[in-house]
Amino acid sequence: MDDEWDDSSDVVVVPPPVVNNYYEDKVDEGHSLSRGRGFTSFNDDDFSKDVGNDFGEKRGRGGRGGGRGRGGRGGRGGTREHRDFETNGDHYNNGDSEDRGDRGDRGERGRGRGRGRGGGGGRGGGRYNDGGESNEGGEGGEEEAKKPPVTYVPPEPTENEQEIFSSTISSGINFDKFDCIAVKVSGENPPRPIESFESANLRKYVLNNILKSGYKKPTPIQKHAIPIIMSGRDLMGCAQTGSGKTAAFLLPIINVLLQDERELVVSPNAQPQVIIVSPTRELTLQIFNEARKFSYGSVLKVAVAYGGTAVRHQGDNISRGCHILVATPGRLHDFVDRKRVSFESVRFVVLDEADRMLDMGFMPTVEKMMEHPSMVPSGERQTLMFSATFPEDIQHLAGRFLNNYLFIAVGIVGGASTDVEQIFHQVTKYEKQNMLKKLIEDNDGKRVLVFVETKRNADFIAAMLSEQQMLTSSIHGDRMQKEREEALYNFKSGRHCILVATAVAARGLDIKNVDIVVNYDLPKSIDEYVHRIGRTGRVGNRGMAVSFFDADQDIALTADLAKILRQADQPVPDFLQGGGTATYKGNKYGGSDVRKFENTNSNANQGQEPEEEW
Ligand SMILES: Nc1ncnc2c1ncn2[C@@H]1O[C@H](COP(=O)(O)OP(=O)(O)OP(=O)(O)O)[C@@H](O)[C@H]1O
User: Which residue is closest in CA terms to ligand 1's atom 3?
Assistant: First the structure.
């Protein structure tokens, strides 16, 4: 994927702490400016500015030329969702949010139109970022050179033990109901699941850190994934949002690293033993902090690399050596191309949000990593993939990176968390603003995460709410990284009760006390919907998702929404009935391994039985 690189090139980062007071007194006001914020993306370090890489051509197609230029979300090849191509690209923000470079309305539209064929309009350098309406199809190379350097150095991660362990969302009243969800494990000779952390044969450090995190018993994905990973197997794991997938891979990996310690190689380049990639900067940072938490007090070194921040510090940290490197793919490759990082010592590769990492947008960077000359071959490393959604076509693509893997499906692959009450209102686009204001007024003091489809709309809605004295932050791909992190901090800390976000915040983010998720605009893909509403109702807590359904815009999603609602035992409103055939095919209740193993181990009888095909 082309755009990945924009950010990547400029930074090596020192991440901010999970909790500290760094952002205290810094009120995020970007929203009130209603501006498309320029995405400044150039490093100020002394790295070579002309790193050759094999993405240049793609980037060029996407609207940007030059080694570091970025641009072209328009050039993204699209994802597997055909319906995304059909609508105007404006809605499609994933790229903006993700570490793909690009950021810009133009880029978005370009991609929307052009997915699958390269699109018309990536955008080039930073100067397009302020609106980007004009300048369609900008060539990025020259603008690139004028971009100001990225100077943002995030705060050092906290060393305070209490802060390190404070990130966990307390489990809710439905936590024990996780045990009633059907689990299917397929593949050859899966090891037995564990029943408790204590019986998992984990090392003392790891067990202590689990206890300090407040975990009392493993979730279903953890019960199955921990022994599978500890026994050396590759894994594709699917489980609902907020059900502990991060710990399901981090705990056994950390345990293996401590159990079978290998020398850390730092010369001639840093050789991490674990590479974890995820699609967004904020999620990468979150996983980094989780990895620090679970390895706390041990010899293990964890580093992070993501775009939008000044490079040098990040690079220096990595160069000092790291067992675990958590990265966005663009920035990772930047370091690899600069010969600061290589893959010779890799023992584990993890793709979090794996279906996103393997869609057409990110696939080139994943391929580049997996097929890099220094990468330890499949079979000699362990490859792990996790997501709440894992469509079958993506599973087929994933298979080539995996070796005799096991497949775990907890509940319905791609199903919504049943702890989220899903409410729909049929609206016209003119009614949305008032409806949102009323909803927020009626839920005074509650923490509300509002999803919109475009970056411009995110700024607009945030400004509108702020004018109503509703303290609001916004997060999207045109905001500078510092602003993004401040916005998230303000929301997490409760300073601002409302966060307006594009798809940048849809996946993976684990934020305490999100009471309501609002789909001000519905996404174009049902997977995206499932991830978005999964920002509430986590680890057994109840949550609520309110979606504004505008038939003019959202009709294509009707059948899929109805299916998701039925699966989660939620009422289906009349206007979502009879919407035709769901497009999300191929998943059966309890999950479906595309390899169709005969010997599937299942505890499906403990949970609900399949009702329908997906
Ligand atoms: N065994 C456990 N007991 C209690 N809390 C847990 C347990 N495992 C994980 N958690 C907490 O549950 C929350 C959600 O976990 P996590 O972010 O890993 O979910 P996820 O399955 O990756 O969700 P998503 O699909 O949205 O990325 C986190 O706050 C985590 O600390």
Answer: 215
**Atom 30 in ligand 1: residue holding the nearest Cα:** 168
Nearest ligand 1 atom to alpha carbon 222: 1
Contacts of 285 (CB under 8 A, 6+ apart): 15, 16, 304, 306, 485
The answer to whether the beta carbons of residues 567 and 416 sit under 8 Å apart is: yes
Confidence of residue 147 (pLDDT cuts 50, 70, 90): low
Phi/psi-derived region of residue 321, left when phi > 0, alpha when psi is between -120 and 50, beta in every other case: left
Tokens 């975990």 correspond to: 215
Q: How far is the CA of 245 from the centre of ligand 1 (A)?
A: 6
Cα distance between residue 416 and residue 329, in whole Å: 27
Q: Within a 10 A sphere around the Cβ of 602, how many other Cβ atoms?
A: 15
Instruction: Kindly indicate the confidence band of residue 238, based on its pLDDT and cuts at 50, 70 and 90.
Output: very high
Mean pLDDT of 324-345: 96
Whats the size of the chain, residue-wise? 614
Cα dist from 20 to 15, 23, 170, 357, 467, whole Å: 12, 8, 19, 30, 29
Would you say 39 and 484 are in contact if contact means Cβ atoms under 8 Å apart?
no
Q: Strand, helix or coil at 47? A: coil
Q: Which residue has its alpha carbon closest to ligand 1 atom 15?
A: 244
Please check whether residue 81 is in contact with residue 525, taking contact to mean a CB–CB distance below 8 angstroms.
Answer: yes
User: Do 394 and 80 touch, CB atoms closer than 8 A?
Assistant: yes
Instruction: Write out the two tokens for 25.
Output: 């007194």
Other beta carbons within 10 angstroms of residue 215's beta carbon come to 18
CA distance 224 to 245: 11
Query: Model confidence at 311, in pLDDT bands (50, 70, 90)?
Result: confident
| DSSP assignments along 355-424, one per residue | HHHTSTTTHHHHHHHHT-TTSPPBTTBEEEEEES---HHHHHHHGGG-SS-EEEEESSTTPPPTTEEEEE
**What is the model's pTM?**
0.80
Tell me the CA–centroid distance for residue 568 and ligand 1, in Å. Answer: 20
b (16+ CB within 10 A) / e for 146-182: ebeebebbbeebbeeeebbbbbbbebbebbeebeebb
Q: Angle, to 10 degrees, between the axis of helix 245-259 and the axis of helix 220-230?
A: 30
